[in-house]
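Hi,

Apologies if this is the wrong queue. I'm a grad student, and the batch job for Crp/Fnr family transcriptional regulator from Chryseobacterium joostei produced an output file that my downstream script rejects. I'm not sure whether the problem is my script or the file. Here is the sequence I used:
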Amino acid sequence: MISKFTFNNQYLFNELPEHEKNLLLGAMRTKNYRKNEAIFTDGTKPNGIYYLNEGKIKKYKVDNDGREQIIYIYSSGEFFGYSAILSNESYGDTTSTLESSVISFISKESFLDILDQSSVLSRLLLKSLSHEFSVMANLIAVLSHRTVRERAALSLLILHDKYKTNDNPEEEVFISLSRVDLANMVGTARETLARIINDFKQESLIKSEGRKLKIIDFKQLIHIANFY
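Support response: The file is valid. Your script probably expects a header line. Output copied below for reference.
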């Protein structure tokens, strides 16, 4: 059920034929990024696409009052920044690291050249863009019509999905997003979020270890999120 609110394009690389994979790998230039380091900003012209090897990236918009709204979080194995290249437009949002990350860059020229050679990559990108549009539409509807408590519950469920490790599904999942970023994802003030998080703890829905959060009662949190 949570899939209608989560977007993940890890399959892009995994489903490519070996030759196309090697073309992408050969074009990649890898760089280490510090926590809170910007990758690209809203309104700038794209000069390539990005692949997240390790870490977490937030995608967000800033309103006229300087308030940040996190739209999406990328995790390792995902490409990002390619929609602006394909539409030949400026970036429509800003991305920066949530933690120390390793990111590969593929220049616009190399990406378009590989795209010309690979019908499979073209098909997978179309699939990815269609899914991303559907997820964004669902999230906009939630932000517009749900209470802060409902949005907070949904955001925690989305984050659990983003922080879990596919290699070890039995491993405990801890959400290490800062309270500021979580508030920006929920779309509320930090103080309001703090009260809701405390309520969730009192109701034994989540627990904390330091600044990290872990979901305890998925069934009740899904009920609160109201996304059946």
